[in-house]
Design goal:
Shape: elongated
Number of strands: 14
Structural class: alpha+beta
Strand content: 25-35%
Distance between the termini: 9 Å
Largest sheet: 7 strands, antiparallel
Bound molecules: zinc ion
Amino acid sequence: MFSLYRCKDCNKVFAVTPFDDKPETEYLPEEGTHEEKSLKNQNDSLSGHTGHHLEKLMPIQNTMVSEQDYREPVKEIYFEATNGRKKFLLKKWRKDIKEPMSYELIQGTLKVIVDACEFREKEIKKEWLRVMSKPLQEKGMIFLTLLKETVTGAKISKDPRLIFDSPNPLVTYQKLPQGCIRMILKRLGAAFTPMERKEIQRFIDEQNQADGVLPLLIRRKFFIEKPDGQHLQAEKPAASMPARIRHLQDRTRPTEYQI
Ligand SMILES: [Zn+2]
């Protein structure tokens, strides 16, 4: 873990890790010993701020956005942090895996919008053909059409119980809500026998999960609204999107990738 500070005099942000005030050791192969390295260069982030007024900033949960995956070590991240009174927008990045993260205060407001909400037709079709019994395989298109009509126009939910994370912070998956499933089952009506409807219900229950094909794929994008009203797009190209959800354990982001 580390702490974030803003120097009020220089208006600069930097992170101080617990290791900064601990001596570092270096292995000397010729002597076969470890030598304690000088502390001189270890407080680089604090040097130059002697006698300045520092304030601690706390990252605001769930504000992190990045074009790159959580696990990508070299990336650019934007997030918000607060000193308890005021909100700040920060950029955190490094250009090389060996470099420490750099921080910069950004003027403007972070805006995240939904770019696309995708019904994963190809994947649903493939899974349907793989698991359903023969007569139902042939009725796949009827089911797909009904499903698509019902799901299209479904609202994007902020309910965390319906959201599954992906390895990319701008891609999530949204479980179909119960109301939507009830509507689909009702609409199956005359086209399917009661036995077939049961089999379809089982398919829906199994596939409306984190590793299933029914959750909608939500792609978001972000921009920074500058105080003068101009938009600043992120510089990096969009990361390649996963074709299928890879569920992150416990539905939480790994702590080492959290801010
Ligand atoms: Zn300073």
